[in-house]
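Researcher: Batch entry, complex prediction.
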Amino acid sequence: MSFLSVEDVTLEYRNGRESFIAAERVSFTVDRADRFIILGPSGCGKSTILRAIGGYLKPVGGNILLDGKQIEKPGPDRVFVFQEFDQLLPWKTVKDNIIFALTASRRFPRAEAERRAAAFIEKVNLTKFAGSYPHTLSGGMKQRVAIARAMAMEPQILLMDEPFAALDALTRSKMQDELLQLCVDAKFTVLFVTHSIPEAIRVGTRILLLTAHPGRVKAEVESRNADPALIQEMLFDGRMEQGTAHV
Amino acid sequence: MFENSFVRKVVLLAVLAAAWEVYARWLANPLLFPTFSDTVAALVSSITSGRLPRAVTFTITLLLKGYLAGLLLAGILTAFASATRIGADFLEILTSMFNPLPSIALLPIALIWFGLGDNSVIFVLIHAVLWSVALNTYAGFRGVSATLRMVGQNYGLSTIGYITRILVPAAFPSILTGLKIGWAFAWRTLIAAELVFGVSSGSGGLGWFIFENKNQLLIPNVFAGLLTVILLGLAVENLLFKSIENATVRRWGMQN
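Model: Structure tokens for the complex:
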């Protein structure tokens, strides 16, 4: 049995009275230590799928099982890294943000949390900024803290929702390398949502392609021998590219 | 040295005091307008005689009682409003009805309900504090970003933990604004209420100190009382709230 299985999941997105189908009968499975990418243009429901796995949203059909158990609500076994820079608690320093995450979620006792916080801050090269408040950091540094915080929590799976999308191209490519290094070292299971084909190929081991309106699974490819042009064609059926292709 | 805003303000204050002194001496009518030096002398003697400190203690104690009771009720109302839709409507209706109503206008009815004494004043103070604090806290909670909410939920906190450890600090800039407005309303209301019936429970407050001295035509003492009201107001608004602000929302970069 696979580690995470998404079976025939349909998700609705509510906007006032109307509801739209964000994802329709999506199925896939993720194994331990996979870096699984959900790739698709805007409107394919990839973030919504991630939110459902996070427990923030109930599917209207189908099942999501983590380690054989149905997902009911958000919990610290599935930690999110968001795209937005405001995901750090602004009233806590870098180090306290991580310590708070570890102790509030009862993953680690205080002393152990402090030790882990220091260790993970060092892993993302922010030791000098451990005592700084988030508003004094750059966007890239904030994302690094968010990643360090998520990893320090030692979740069963890391859910990353376009964590680098709001960064400039240079920072973005550096962060991709860093993330890759951290994941390979620690054998994290990662579910990573992006709309960038190069990013998907660079970061992932397996890539799920979704088409838009509503989100449906188009194909699944191994990133080792993935061909960007072919992926592009599969996503858009040879039409003009609608999404944007960042590096 | 003139670059320092504190120095500039001190110089301005000195100029104002000097102007006051000169004008009062020229007017030479201590019943209408005592000199600055007479006022300071009256202030010092009122302090050393213990009358002014007693009045201040009385006023501050009463104010704290009303303020804290107002905060407690505001907390309950906000919790109710955040938890249910009917609670939100309730808060909205009550605040839009009562916020424009100056608290002092409730004093006559409070006197009928609670009689002469602390309770009437506390009732009026609660009214002064409650709406602005509840409204601002509720607006602050609603303004907490979806991302921050999801981060908070991700940690699996209990409802109480989620409110106290995520929502309250995230909404703190608005809450602090509410506290400041509530304080300003309460302070003005209390002095006004005391001017009307400060003698209620044997020892009067600052407002009563002013009123009583006016009746005895001790005008320098009236000015000393007014000066005390200004100084206390300044101390709370500029020292207490400023230092809370510096230690929290400014430090966190949350103030816009």
